[in-house]
Amino acid sequence: MFRKFSLFIICFIGVLSLRATPVQDIIRRSGNASDYPNNNLLVLFDSTRVDVQESGLSYYSLHQLTKILTPQGALRMKTVKYGYDPLSAFVEIQKVIVYRHNGSIQNIPVSTVMDYPAPARAIYWGAREKMIEVGRLEPGDAVEVFIFKKGFTYALLQDGDDDQYIPPMRGHFYDIVPFYSSDPVLCKSYQVYVPKDKTIQYEFYNGTCTSKVLFLGDKNLYAFSATNILPLKAESNMVAWDDVAPKLLLSTSPDWKAKSLWFYNVNEDYHSFDPTPEVREKVSELVKNARTELDSISLLTHWVADNMRYSGISMGKGEGYTLHNCKMNFTDRCGVCKDKASMLIAMLRAAGFKAYPAMTMAGSRIDYIPADQFNHSVTVVKRRNGQYQLLDPTWVPFLRELWSSAEQQQNYLMGVPEGADLKITPVSPPENHYFRINTQSTLAGDGTLTGSFTLTAEGQSDGSVRGFFTRNFKSDWKMSIEKEFLRIFPSIILSNIDFGDPYDYMSGPIKITADFTIPGYALAGNSELIVKPITTTQLFASAMSYLWWNTDIDQRNYGFRDRTSRLVELEESITLPDGAIATSPFQIYGNQRNIQFGELRLATTGEYIKNKPNLGFR
Length: 618
Known about the structure:
Layout: H1 2-13, H2 15-20, H3 23-29, E1 41-52, E2 58-68, H4 71-76, E3 79-84, E4 89-99, E5 105-108, E6 114-117, E7 123-124, E8 128-133, E9 142-151, E10 174-178, E11 185-195, E12 201-205, E13 210-216, E14 219-229, H5 241-244, E15 247-251, H6 256-269, H7 277-287, H8 293-307, E16 309-310, E17 312-313, H9 326-332, E18 334-335, H10 337-350, E19 354-360, E20 376-382, E21 388-391, E22 411-414, E23 423-424, E24 434-443, E25 449-457, H11 459-470, H12 477-488, E26 493-498, E27 510-518, E28 523-525, E29 528-531, E30 567-575, E31 581-584, E32 588-590, E33 595-597, E34 600-603, E35 614-617
Parallel strand pairs: 1-11, 7-17, 16-18, 24-30
Antiparallel strand pairs: 1-2, 2-9, 3-8, 4-5, 4-9, 6-8, 10-15, 11-14, 12-15, 13-14, 19-20, 19-22, 20-21, 22-23, 24-25, 25-27, 26-27, 28-29, 29-34, 30-35, 31-34, 32-33
């Protein structure tokens, strides 16, 4: 009863109650490792208070109390870290208190706070981490942390003092608050104070919380809380946590059209897409032999995709929603998704097209409250028929598509002059992504298999197969194909290997052919041969790994996610040795792990059936 009452007071009255109730009593009564098996930490209290100013500038007060349950948890909490981008946010660790299980209390001097560059890969925008070493901890100890932050998560074009911390849509506020955790949380509280002349819309997804609105003079208070939040159990190939786990979205933006118009104007005002003379010259060179509208779009999209390296280097102001300008991108030939999108827009405009930026969320859905749920930038071009076409130069290097079908059923928002609502990309039919193997072979009486092999693939399957070449040095191309065959058939002898020019993906789908001989392939016994069709041996399995996923979950709690729809067709014809006849049929069956293929048993004695010399598998 004490624990429930304390949690109620803490969640709904706020931080002051934690000071009024002895913290050691709350920690002692909160439970231990036996109450929370398979968990290393227990978050007793997680509070966020946000004070929003008229300009949209927001002051965050973060307060968390965490109990150590296991030695592994002690290792995790030995250093308190908080990441931020100094271009858009200011962070201060104000207080850290350690409550020892023996009753002693230790205040960690905040003068020991360190500020280091955050670990980075591919994107180097100057992110940093504030961290303070707590030191040795033991199960039963607890750590209380107070952090102050002002700002937001993206930087734009403001300069000086607090102006740089004002969000991109000046005067507006948004937030995305996860109400789920990898550790159990006894109480989570989120409060936001907003000027009374600002209308805030919000929605709680995938669960329930307690909420209230209070009118406090010149500000309105929106308060949300939840108790006894337990970690969720992940499933293989499940949808993103943001799609299924509890979360709170808030925004003062009226709708997605307002965000669309802002996104269009902020980049036009910055002249992000003004082509330079050098770009116009390059565009003329690229499209001089184009015969159709789509030819020009394809040539420019693939040039940007293949010739701009993905590497985000900090360029100071301008990171975030403002796309870097054409001159910078064409000179540097590197950047992240928004730089590639910006370069393509400029080149399309130089070719006479109407092209604009769009924002999307790769990997999870965008919900309808217009909080900024984006992690990716792409391009849209207006075709002569008036329809917009999506282009993604980030995801289509060495891919025959212009828009990666791995982004199907993905929400996006265009930044166009007329404004736009939230849209969703269509499902790409599996026939657009076929993977086909055809084998013609002859089986000798001694078990030797001789024949020809042909692989063709299109769309996303084409990209997977083409990776055998684009991810290897040109001098290793033939060897990479040989290694794939040798991985399955160590004694195989290959000849006449042909794969065309893997970099010429504009001409047609990838095609690999080879002639082969496999001595002793069939298992020989007394008057019997046992043979397994080679198309069923997981040859080139890395290009169709989705066939080998773990499917042993009897009942799923969450949606299943695949990159795109695909079609797999395996066809094989085996000419049998004289006098051989099949005595057991070939089978395809499934077990708890994946699809399994059987083998074929052949009797090598008995009457030779002249009108049935071949065995077909399809």
